[in-house]
Specification:
single chain, 185 residues, six-stranded antiparallel β-sheet, five-stranded antiparallel β-sheet, 16 strands
């Protein structure tokens, strides 16, 4: 058990028969009444985000999540195959569990597969990925004052807004958390 006073971003806990990751938390000490902890949690089984308030000092279960380094191999129907880089064991995950991750996954990419007591929860991507632009309109020099963007599609089929100087064939570094452009690769 762990006290909610010891919350940290990224901590995994068991609450209401679910496995949750702490995304944000805030300790609140009102002038009148008892202190409490306001938190934002992500359900690791279905990806739902929920805001939850705990009384200060309340105890919750700590969930031990196992991370295995695996390599993404290929899509097989409506599932995707990953291979353990040490034992060469293969694991299939349904496409429904990978809706966000598929925007950034390409073949032979190394990721971490998260599991809890033998149950596979999902894929943890690196913070950024480098992907090639497959389609975008050419940028015209001097047609804006500052900060203009255009749409670009990368090799995984994901479309994002990029600065005008990005061209087809460029490598882009993309933030996997929110899918935003970081820089050219």
């Amino acid at each position: 058990m762990i006290s909610v006073n010891d919350f940290k971003t990224g901590l995994t806990i068991e609450v209401d028969n679910g496995i949750w990751r702490v995304l944000e938390f805030q300790h609140v000490k009102p002038g009148k009444g008892a202190a409490f902890v306001r938190s934002k949690l992500r359900n690791l089984r279905n990806g739902a985000i929920q805001e939850k308030t705990f009384r200060a000092g309340e105890k919750v279960g700590k969930a031990q999540i196992d991370n295995r380094r695996m390599q993404y191999l290929y899509a097989s129907g409506d599932s995707h195959v990953f291979m353990d880089t040490e034992t060469y064991d293969q694991t299939e995950l349904p496409e429904a569990n990978l809706t966000h991750e598929l925007k950034f996954l390409k073949e032979n990419m190394e990721v971490h597969i998260q599991s809890y007591q033998g149950e596979t929860l999902g894929v943890e991507l690196p913070n950024t990925v480098t992907l090639e632009v497959t389609e975008t309109e050419p940028g015209i020099k001097g047609d804006t004052a500052q900060g203009a963007t255009k749409a670009a599609t990368v090799e995984t089929g994901y479309t994002l807004n990029v600065p005008l100087f990005v061209n087809q064939g460029d490598l882009l570094i993309i933030n996997t958390t929110d899918g935003s452009y970081v820089s050219r690769g």
